[in-house]
Structure formats: C-alpha cells, structure tokens
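Please check these two lines:
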Amino acid sequence: MSRLVVISNRIADPRKPASGGLAVAVGQALEASGGLWFGWSGKIVEDGTPGEGDLHLQTAGNVQLATVDLSREDHDSYYLGYSNGVLWPVFHYRLDLADFDAGYIGGYRRVNHMFARKLANLLQPDDVIWVHDYHLMPLAAELRAMGCRQRMGFFLHIPLPPPLILAAVPEHDWLVRTLFAYDLVGLQSDADVAHFSRYVGTETSADILGEHEFRAFGKTLQVQAFPIGIDVDEFQALGQGRESQEMYAQMKGEYSRRRLLLGVERMDYSKGLPQRLKTFRHLLQTYPENVGSATLIQIAAPSRESVDAYAALRQELESLCGAINGNFGELDWMPVRYIHRNVARKRLPGLYRAASVALVTPLRDGMNLVAKEFVVAQDPDDPGVLVLSRFAGAAEQLAEALMVNPYDIARTAETIQRALQMPLDERQRRHQSLLTRVREQDVHWWRERFLNALANVPAP
C-alpha cells in the first residue's frame, strides 16, 4: 500500500480532536497508510535567513509530522504578502484589496522551493503526494525539478476566479503553468472547473481533451470538482455533548419569545457581513412584525486583525450593529447580538439547533462548511431554514436551501421573511433532502473520491 504524504501550510496532530475539515479528512487516511504530514511549524524566526528554516520531525502514532520554521522575511512575503495579500483577495474577487507588491512573489517562490527541498529527502519512491491550498500551488513543479516522479495531486480550498480576474495576479501565467506539474487538480465546484477551462483555453492555448482533461506545456492534467464535506457523525456526536445541550437550553430559555437568526464565520471581507447587517435592518424596516420578535446573533471570530482591511471591516460592523440597536432596540430586546470572539466548537451544534434561520451569505466562498453543519445540527421534527448565498460553493450541492444574492439587500430580506414564515411541512421536506446529501457527500466521501481519482490518473 502506497504511503500518503500530505502537504499543507499548517498541519495538525491527527491524535487530537480536529476542528478543521482538512484535519478531519486526512487524519484517518494518514493513519491507515502510515503517512507523512508536512508544513510550516507556525514559528517565525526573527533573525532567520530567507529560504532557510529548521526541519522538525516527530511521530504521532504511525504518522510522521514534519514542520519547517520560517524567517520573518519569508513569512511576511510568502504568507502575509503573496498568499494572503494577493491570492486570497483576488481569488475572492476583491482586486481592490490586493497588495501587488512586486517583492512578494519572490518570497512565495523561495518558500515553496525550500519546502520542496526539505520534503524531497523525506519522500519514498511509491508515495502518493497530496498538496493543499493556495499557499503551495507551485510545490509540485519544484519537486519535479528535483527529480521527484511520485503521483501528485493538488486541492484548492478557496474559489478559482474567472480568467480576467485571475489574470490580475502578478505572474498568473507562471502560477497556472505550475499546476500542470500535478497529475490531478481538485477544485470545490463545477463553476471553478469552468473558470479553469476558460482560463487555459484563452491564456495558454491548451488542448481541451475532454470535460476534465487538459494538455499544455507538454503535460496532461486532470481537473475535477471535489466538494469538501464535514464529518457528519462527529458533528452529530458533538450535538449530543454536554456543552452543546447546555447552549441549546440556554438559547431556548433566553429567547423563548423570539425567533433567532444566526450567522457564524471568521471576520473576513469575503463573508458579506456588512451586507447581512444592512439586510437585517431592511427586514425590520420592511416587515415591522419582526421588531421585538426577531434577533440576529452574529458571531465574527477574530481573523488577521493587524491587516488594515480587517480593522476597517470590524469598525464598520460595530458601527452598523450600534446603529441598528439604537434605532430599533427596546429595553427588553436588542435586535443584534454581535460577538467578536471564538465560540467553542463543542457549543456550536446547540447554537445552530436553537436558530430558526441560518444566514450563510458570503460574497464569495470556496465551499462554506457552516451551511452543512447547520443542516446536520437541526431537529428533523422542527428544523430551521438555511438561507444560502448563490456565491458559496455549497450552493451547487444544497439546492433545497433558500438561495439569495447577498448584494441585493431588498430581495434577500424578502427571502429571510419567507424563511421565518415557512410552514413546518416545507421546512421538514427541505431539511430531509439537505441532510441526505450532506451525509452522502461527507468529508470521507470527499477524501476517497479525490484519492481514488488520483490513483486512476493514467501514467504519463
């Protein structure tokens, strides 16, 4: 049996409870094959030499964990600069927030080269290599240049933008060319695959050999959609835990006379938080029966607070929340409860279950697992309603949600009103269909589909 090697910017100990989809997905596969997980250690060496970092090895059961330190210069150019200052905003269609500093791409290339150099010595000839996310797109090209011939796959967890937006990335042609060093590239949605096909067709003159097969630069590449899921059994078990049950009882007790609307995400400009608050304000203005009876709980966990765009977003959210509460609030009711901190994952199922409506309305998202967690947490006899942005990757799978365009404030408010008034039998029908699909297409299904597809890619 071939050993699985996973490479990601950050790694997790597979022996510990995992909160992220990637950690849950690959942990079991790594344990099964006695695998290797490689990535950044999280440590920044202030006076370190760029392109050099200490390699740390440890074992977790039968999994080897390998991590590399980053110098301050490498961290600021590779991670903050190119990965999160260029690729993240551009891939989420926010060209206005991208920082196209010419020096960042040098650090991005340098760190990917260093990772490849450190990793190459740990590889075995029959390893299967699975690289994750936008930080490490060129890693296979670096490994190939060092003589590595193992089977390699790549999965992009964030959206792939349309060709004209992708073309705004400095050296975008080089970046996409490096993907052809992989045997298989996985994207979150069919829309992302269509964007890739259009890009290579117009920018590289690639030969499109089939629906998922492309040939350019003397290489053939398979590109398919593999929508990531959640661990349904694990999340349902969390919902039966003490912390979740206590949260549910607390919310039902405090809001026995209210209808709860819920938003849960990281503080990020891709999540559409200002638009959501403006929509809720419009809901109260247009449908006054919700005044005093509907409460929005918005959790926006801290994220990259040192970045100016995030500081400005937080200020805008706090201003909107204050204005809504000031204009509509009463002595015994505040329309918005805004929480800018993390909520323990063990408590989330209870919070989801207490909500009448979940607002999952990003401006752009690769997938969005909150939507799937909300579905799994519901009481099937009295389920809440999922209001979902059409711009989330999850929209391709969760067709029974109420779809909205988060930029259209009035129509989204109208849809939320529909959700609040939806009859029980319709809520039950929609929830049953959603739950069936989320369970069938869970995180293990995602992992197995990708690894099986990688194993079946024809040899070059």
